[in-house]
Design brief:
Elements lengths: L1 H18 L10 H12 L7 E5 L8 E5 L1 H12 L4 E6 L3 E4 L2 E4 L8 E5 L2 E4 L12 E12 L3 E3 L21 E12 L2 E3 L6 E4 L2 E6 L2 E3 L10 E4 L2 E11 L5 E3 L4 E10 L5 E6 L8 E12 L3 E8 L5 E16 L1 E9 L10 E15 L3 E6 L6 E13 L12 E5 L1 E10 L5
Helix pairs in contact: 1-2
Length: 420
C-alpha cells in the first residue's frame, strides 16, 4: 500500500509538470519530488510498474564487456511499454559506446531510471568529436535518480587532443527535445567535453548532483544549455575546467540556487552572438551560490559579431566569492579577432546584488559593453569584495572598477568603488 501511495504522489507531481503554467518555473516541489523518486530508485515500486533491468537484456557488470546494444534494447522495451515503466541500471561497471535512447514512446510518463551503476566509455569513443556519449531524446517525462556515476575518462586521451578549431568533444549526458525531466543524486566525472548538455527542452529540474573534473580539463562545462525553457538547478556541487553552468542562445526562465562552483569559469551567460539568427536569453536568476578559486564569478559574454540578439531580465544575487579572479564581468569583446565588429547583442535589465567575498584581481568589476549597443539598466547593489591577491603585484594599481559603454545604477555599499 505504501508503494502505491508513493506512485500516486509521483503521478500528481508529474501531472503538475505537464499542466503547469508555461510561463512559470516547474510548479511541483523539487525536494518532495526527489525524496519520493529516491524511494523508487531503491526499488520501492508497486506491481503496476514494469521493470526493465539492463542485466536481463544481457548487459554485463564486469566493466570489460561492451553492453551498448543491451542498454538500447532495454530502453526500447521500456519506451514501447503501454504502462508505467522503470529502467534499472544496477550497481556494477558497464562498458558503453555512444548510444541514442530516443522516442517517441508509449509508456505512461515519467520513465523512471533507477541509476546506481558506474558507466565507463568504450575505447573507441575516447577521442570522438561531436559524437555525444549517452543521449536521451524526443519524449516526455524522464526521472533519473540514484547514486550512479557517469565517468567519461577524459583524462585518458580526450583532454590531450587540444587544437584550435576542433569541434567539441563528447558530452557525458545529452538531453534533447525532452519535456518534464528530473535528475537527482547522480555523479558525472571527467567528461571528455560537457558533462550535461541540454537543448530544445522544457521543464527541467536538476538537484543534488555532483559534477567533477580538474581545473585544467578543457571545455568541460558542468551544465550547458541552449534553446531551453524553465530550468531549476539546485543543491549541487560543480567543479570543472570550464563554466559550472553555461546558458547560451534561447535559454529562458532559469533559476540556479544553492550551487557550489569551483574550480571552473563560474556562472556564464553566453557566449552570445556566435551563431546566425540566435534566440534571445531572458529570465535568468543565479542566487545563494558560492564560488571558490574560479576564473569568473557572475559573467555575461558576447562575441564581436554581426549576429543580433538580446539578453535581459538577469539577476545575480547573494553570491559568495572566494579568491575569484573576475567576480563581476560583462565582456562584450569576448574572443575578439582582427576585423571583427562591435557586438550586436543588447544586454539590458541586469542586477548584481549582495555579492561579497574576496578576489585576486585589482579590477574586480568589469563592465565592458558594446559601443554600438551599450548596456542598459545595469544595477550594482550592495557589493563588498576585498582584494586578497599578491600585495606586491600591481601595487600602484588601485582596487577599482572598469566600465565602458554603460551607465550603472549604484545602490548601497560599493567595494571596489564605482566607476568614475
Amino acid at each position: 500500500m505504501a508503494s502505491m501511495r508513493l506512485l500516486a504522489i509521483i503521478a500528481i507531481l508529474v501531472q503538475g509538470l505537464v499542466n503547469g503554467d508555461s510561463h512559470e518555473l516547474p510548479s511541483f516541489d523539487p525536494e518532495l519530488a526527489v525524496a519520493k523518486v529516491l524511494e523508487v530508485a531503491e526499488g520501492k515500486v508497486g506491481p503496476d510498474v514494469k521493470v526493465f533491468n539492463v542485466v536481463d537484456f544481457g548487459a554485463k557488470l564486469d566493466g570489460t564487456t561492451i553492453s551498448t546494444i543491451n542498454f538500447i534494447r532495454a530502453f526500447k522495451e521500456a519506451c514501447n511499454h503501454n504502462g508505467r515503466a522503470m529502467l534499472v541500471i544496477p550497481e556494477g561497471n558497464f562498458l558503453l559506446g555512444s548510444m541514442l535512447l530516443s522516442g517517441p514512446c508509449t509508456f505512461q510518463p515519467p520513465l523512471m531510471v533507477q541509476f546506481n551503476g558506474n558507466l565507463l566509455p568504450q575505447g573507441s569513443t575516447s577521442t570522438a568529436e561531436n559524437a555525444d556519449w549517452i543521449t536521451f531524446m524526443n519524449f516526455n517525462g524522464l526521472f533519473i535518480s540514484g547514486k550512479g556515476t557517469i565517468n567519461g575518462l577524459g583524462e585518458k586521451e580526450a583532454w590531450k587532443a587540444v587544437c584550435d578549431g576542433c569541434r567539441r568533444k563528447a558530452a557525458n549526458l545529452k538531453l534533447i527535445k525532452l519535456n518534464d525531466v528530473l535528475i537527482s543524486g547522480i555523479t558525472s566525472v571527467n567528461a571528455k567535453g560537457f558533462h550535461m548538455m541540454i537543448s530544445v527542452c522544457n521543464n527541467f529540474v536538476i538537484t543534488n548532483v555532483n559534477i567533477s573534473a580538474p581545473d585544467e580539463s578543457p571545455n568541460t562545462d558542468g551544465i550547458h544549455m541552449s534553446k531551453t525553457n524553465k530550468v531549476r538547478i539546485s543543491n549541487s556541487t560543480i567543479g570543472t575546467g570550464d563554466d559550472c553552468v553555461s546558458m547560451i542562445h534561447g535559454t529562458t526562465n532559469v533559476t540556479v540556487e544553492n550551487v557550489k562552483c569551483g574550480p571552473g569559469h563560474g556562472f556564464s551567460i553566453g557566449s552570445l552572438g556566435h551563431y546566425d539568427a540566435e534566440f534571445d536569453v531572458f529570465g535568468i536568476t543565479v542566487r545563494n551560490c558560492s564560488l571558490a578559486y574560479t576564473e569568473n564569478g557572475a559573467r555575461i559574454k558576447t562575441y564581436r559579431n554581426e549576429s543580433p540578439s538580446k539578453a535581459s531580465g538577469i539577476i545575480f544575487q547573494d553570491l559568495t566569492m572566494d579568491h575569484v579572479k573576475n567576480p563581476i564581468l560583462i565582456d562584450q569583446e569576448y574572443a575578439t579577432i582582427p576585423g571583427s565588429v562591435d557586438s550586436k547583442v543588447l544586454i539590458s535589465d541586469v542586477e548584481f546584488s549582495n555579492i561579497r567575498g574576496t578576489t585576486i584581481s585589482k579590477i574586480a568589476v568589469v563592465l565592458a559593453c558594446s559601443q554600438s549597443f551599450p548596456c542598459k539598466g545595469i544595477t550594482l547593489k550592495d557589493i563588498h569584495l576585498e582584494y586578497t591577491g599578491d600585495p606586491d603585484h600591481n601595487e600602484d594599481t588601485p582596487f577599482s572598477s572598469n566600465c565602458t559603454n554603460v551607465k550603472v545604477n549604484y545602490i548601497g555599499e560599493q567595494l571596489p568603488p564605482p566607476c568614475a
